[in-house]
Design brief:
About 70% of the residues lie in helices and about 5% in strands. It is built from 15 helices and 4 strands.
Amino acid sequence: MAVRLKRSTRASRVGLLAGLLLLAAAATLPAWAPEGAASSWMHQFVEVACYLIFAMMWNLLAGYGGMVSIGQQAFFGFGGYVMLVLGNLAGVNPFLAVPLGALAAAVFALPVSYLAFRLQGGYFAIGTWVIAEVVRLSFANLTVVGGGSGTSLTALRGIEKATRENATYGMALACVVASIALVYVFLRSKRGLALLAIRDNEVAAESQGIDVRGMKLAVYVVAAFGCGLAGALYFLGNLRISPDAAFSVNWTAFAIFMVVIGGIGRIEGPIVGVLVFWASSRFFSDYGTWYLLGLGLLAIVVTIFFKQGLWGWLQQRHGLSLFPTQRRLDPEEPHAQH
């Protein structure tokens, strides 16, 4: 019986069409949104975009690479500070400084990896947190960037507010689309299969000729680039940065929450998780401590009753996959054979 390789599903084709429609609507938001609400909506989107990019990078690192880090805020803050230094002190256009900050975070990940990769399992997770704290304390003692109290992004003073908001929003939208597309393409490639093999069993993967250390280093650097991009973009929209805000462990904690809620090891997981997190923050954050307790209770419920996350449960129950990365062999219909 003849078979054919199948990479897409009906859900993925419908999802692609829906995604293109949403992208078109988002790209034209400044034109059709109510005048009073457009600014608020764009600001909220930039914040959500940063959370999504950061969560996707953590999911790539831990969910697909098996490297559970709780110190990714080191690259988030590093990218933000590099963007600010280039803009305020070097005279670089802040919008151009955003990808440069991400690139600097990726370069910074190279020496950090030599320290982090000496550790395994829980020691790796704690070690990355310690590294992030060292980076935070280092920036807190740099008076040129405001020390512990931080400083403002003054390089945007000459740009009108509407122009700045539109440019920041457009960059955030482009970064989200590029991040999702690049992660999807990577996971569908041979290197993506190698990464999954390493996550499942490093010894078996190495016995098949996979360069385990090289692949883990590549993923670590790519994740650092994405986290640095999210940090630079976030503080570009926030216009102010401080060590406590940039290097807070809450960034990684929230990313873990989003990925676990949505489904770890799935591209759809961070997307679903960030929507749940945004909706919870939007409608319940005014309740203070009760809001945080609610997030914790939600995480407990999901981990007990939906061990694969909300999207993982839907995928297992209904076979839905918007970003299929698996290869399936399906028998061809007799009339389709030649």
